[in-house]
Design a protein that fits this description.
Length: 263
């Protein structure tokens, strides 16, 4: 603790709170003397087998890749994401090949054609983290190696999964120079009103929370241009459907017939 003398301790309001070690810790001590950021001293009970997580040096705070942090644990991840989002107004952060996205709950001017062309042809990591960088990597690997690629978009209710998927599809439609007059993402997402008719539910974080999962397959020709898309599989939380059993089965079977058609 002589070099890195700052730690994170749990807090009921802020989840994690930063503190500085005010007195050297010796193996076997039951109490750690801490100095909080507001100047308050605290005797914090510790378990020798589970000491408070260390805080990263300030020079690493705000890194665009979480794997670059010296200490990678829950408080470090949350603090880094908060700094990037609240102070730098950046919603994307890498964690290796994973892209972490913070939902700003408002439109941002970072998804236009100029941004798409800026990421086109670039290697992942050469530019700031972005959903377009992930889409470009998948598109490039598909075109170069002639192999199918998958992008998994996951998150809690209201995290912005549907919007992120739409931006990825918009990227594919633009860089592949699709000749279709209507954007492929509009065609694929046109099925949403059908699935959302009884497949959505109100939660504490999202008034229109999707209670289903989709596997959308986008097809490309030999010139790597989009020629169509399929919703291959459909997963519904049946416990969220409140209609009578007979009607529910008819509705679900009808959806499966509609969603299996090529867009």
């Amino acid at each position: 603790f002589s070099v890195y003398n700052r730690v994170w301790i749990p807090d009921p309001e802020e989840v994690w709170k930063s503190a500085e070690i005010a007195k050297d810790y010796r193996v076997g001590d039951k109490v750690l003397r801490l100095l909080l950021e507001d100047g308050t001293e605290l005797d914090y009970s510790v378990d020798p087998e589970s000491l408070p997580p260390l805080r990263n040096p300030d020079i690493l705070v705000g890194e665009n890749d979480l794997t670059a942090l010296s200490y990678l644990h829950e408080p470090a991840v949350l603090h880094n994401l908060r700094i990037r989002f609240a102070e730098s107004k950046l919603i994307y952060t890498y964690s290796g090949i994973i892209l972490v996205a913070m939902n700003p709950y408002k439109q941002l001017p970072i998804y236009g054609d100029a941004i798409i062309h800026a990421y086109s042809g670039q290697n992942m990591g050469d530019m700031d983290p972005h959903i377009f960088a992930v889409a470009e990597e998948a598109y490039k690997q598909m075109a170069r190696n002639n192999r199918n690629q998958s992008i998994i978009v996951s998150g809690e209710s209201g995290a912005g999964k549907t919007v992120s998927a739409r931006y990825a599809m918009r990227y594919f439609a633009t860089v592949s120079k699709s000749s279709s007059t209507a954007h492929v993402e509009d065609k694929v997402l046109a099925s949403n009103p059908i699935t959302e008719a009884v497949g959505n539910a109100k939660t504490t974080r999202n008034d229109n929370s999707s209670r289903f999962g989709k596997y959308t397959e986008i097809s490309f020709d030999e010139r790597n241009q989009i020629i169509g898309a399929n919703m291959r599989t459909y997963l519904l939380e049946k416990s969220r459907v409140v209609f009578q059993e007979v009607r529910k089965n008819l509705i679900i079977q009808g959806w499966e017939a509609i969603l299996s058609s090529r867009v």
